[in-house]
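Each letter names a residue; the fold follows as tokens. Both lines appear below:
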Amino acid sequence: MQSTLHPAGPEATEVALLWWVMFGASVFIMGLVVGLIAWGLTRATGRERFAGMPMIVGLGIVFPVVVITPLIVWSVDITSRVRAAITPAVTVEVVGRQFWWEVRYPGHGIVTANEIRVPVGQPVELVLTTADVIHSLWFPEIAGKLDMIPGRANRMVIQADRAGTFRGQCAEFCGIQHALMALVLVAEPPDAFEDWATAQSQPPPPPEDPFLVWGRDAFLAAGCGTCHAVRGTPAKGTFGPDLSHVGSRVTLGAGVLPNGIGPLAGWIADSQAIKPGNHIPAFNTLDGETLRAVAAWLESLK
């Protein structure tokens, strides 16, 4: 679900309340205007034409100023409060790329992609930058959107008030696959978050199963390490997402597919058929068994 009307964070709650009040005011004013139009069409006469001037001034100028001014003041106050300086429990660096998200936890030594994990009930600072064009990060149920502008670092503090998985997206047109540039925010209890962070900060153990060893070796032989990094292996690429713990992620391809061996194999074989215009070449030269071995190894990287 992506709805600002089902808030799961303090900022989203403020925005939802403001929306409901503005919606109610709009319905009231619309009803008033329609009612006055109906009255004018059915009751007004020529003798009342000039007698209506006080009504025009009162309802056309004074009434809108009295109603709209408090709403403007309230919306500005909400913006200043949700953007106020808060000491965060965790800092997350998010880099927008065509068409995926690089996610870094500098305090934990974690590099991941297309997924942000946060502890429930604690403020988290997001430092937003971009590696190419303008992007915009938005989790409708958690907080408002904020642009990612070349050469600039924007900051926002979010907080999830309940555990769950929340879908986010790029809210600024950034190219051919803008619509398929999603990401996931997973909010979990602080203890579970720390367990996840500890596991993510360590390189994955080397495979022992011969089938997985075959998959790892095929991954390296195909040159995948030129673009991708997998800690503990010779793969050191930085152009594409870090795959050190790709098996633990909820989705693949920035929200395009659910994670799993099958989707991984399909993505490796021909990602262009799934998400045209992304920067990953097709590896359809791999035979079926080798492709399955590579996918199985990647899925094992928890």
User: Anything to note?
Assistant: The chain has three domains: 10-82, 90-189, 210-299. The helical segments are 10-43, 53-82, 190-200, 210-221, 261-274, 288-299.
